[in-house]
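**Paired protein data**
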Amino acid sequence: MATPFFIEVARRYLANMIVIDELPFRFVEGVGFKRFCNAVQPKFKMPSRYTIARDIVDIYTNEKKRQFSSSGSTSELDKYLGDIEKGGKNAQFDILEWWKVNATKYRVLSLIAQDVLAMPVSTIACEFAFSTGGHILDRFRSSLTPKMVEVLYHSTAGFSD
C-alpha cells in the first residue's frame, strides 16, 4: 500500500529538521540533498533557503501564539500597554502618583520607571551654592583665563549692591 505524500507536511518536517539539527538555511540548496530528496520523493519540489526561512518563522509564530493562548498569561509589558491604552489621555495625569499606586502590579517595569523618573540629587553643599566665598576659581575648576575672570568679576561688581 502506498503512503500518501503531502508537500506541506514535508516542508514543515524539513523546516523542523533544519531547526533541530541547527543546519544553515542554504542546506536545502545543496546538490547532494536535492539528489537525495529527488530519489526519495520525486514529487517534492525543493524550496529555496528563503522559503525555508519563512517557513521557520511561521512555525515559530504559530507556536508562540499557541503557547500564549493555552497559558492564558500575558507579559507584564503587554498588561501595562493594555492598561495605558484603556486609560486614555488625561491632562491632569500624575505619572509619579500612577507608579506609586501601580508599582506592585508592575514590579519589573516599576524598577525601570524608578531609574528613568528619578530626580538627580545635587552634590553641591548648600553653603557652597549660596555663598560667594565658596566660588573659588582655579586652574582645575575653570577654563577661563585669569584676565577674563578679573574682567567678569569687575563687570558684575556694581550689580551686587
